[in-house]
Amino acid sequence: TGVSIIDSYDWNYLSQQALAVKSTNDILVVGGGIVGLTVISFLVDRYPDKRFTLAVREERLFPVFLKINVEEKIMDWLLDRKVTVRMNTTVSRGKGRSFLLYPEYRKIRVDHVFY
User: How deeply is 45 buried, as exposed, middle or buried, from its count of CB atoms within 10 A (0-12, 13-18, 19+)?
Assistant: First the structure.
């Protein structure tokens, strides 16, 4: 028999997340590493009419591995697709659907968030 890397709990969770994304307009993805960039590129490609914000704690995307020219291409790709990118930003949950982005102390409202 084959080995499954996704157990039933993971599959249920992923299915719930996919349904949630379909019914939302504003999506926040936290993290500019491999997982955050993979999640946002997947979502932006499939849901181009939704509004996305990418919050990145570092001053660079994927800071350990990417060379500057690759990072610039990724940033261009995101900006071409109208993704709002907030660098040097940490996130904390506010009330309801609001999140605070630091150090700007900017409040945004989102329908769904991926950490």
Answer: exposed
